[in-house]
Amino acid sequence: MTPLTPAHFLIGRAIDHIPEQCFIRTPDNRLDNFKQLSKLYQMFWERWSREYILELQRKTKWRSTSGSLHPGQLVLVRDSNLPPLKWRLGRVLEMIFGADGVGRVALVKTMDGVLKRAVVRLCPLPVSVESGDFQGRGHVEAKKEHLATAELEPAGKKKQTREMFEQH
Question: InterPro entries, from UniProt (predicted)?
């Protein structure tokens, strides 16, 4: 599952670009205009991913239930080996609670299958099933029913998972 971008309408797929050389630590007097612009872009991206993505993930205390994940919520699955644009998009299927009643682990459905991830490795996106931002309440209710009755599949059934995502 990938986010829909203007490139999908123009060329039918996401734009894949070659990573540029990193200019963040190069002194400004050694850069031409293009490289200075690239440096500004890289500095913005680094700061945005450090501040905004972490803000989405912020949790005050484990004892607090406000802002916790819930089934049906759209999340990014953080991967420290990948840049944020390559993080997988998924939907929370189920929360697993500890002995103290606090959810610390979630089952997340992605294109590759169902993953079991710690809540601290998930970034909730500001869009949720309850917001009604999709295709009306009927569509949202159908999604909730589907998520509630979804059978967990092994990660090896990629084709079936893709078909399920395409149907809904």
Answer: DUF5641
The tokens for 33 are 């205009």
User: What's the pTM?
Assistant: 0.45
pLDDT tens, 14-33?
777 666 677 777 777 777 77
**Domain coordinates of the chain in residue numbers?**
18-57, 74-167
User: Helix, strand or coil for residue 22?
Assistant: coil
**Four-residue CA torsion sign, 109, 111, 113, 116:** negative
Using CA atoms, how far apart are residues 122 and 124, in angstroms rounded to an integer? 6
117 DSSP β-pair partners: 106
With H, G, I as helix, E, B as strand and everything else as coil, classify residue 138: helix
Whether the CB-CB separation of 92 and 75 falls below 8 Å is answered with yes
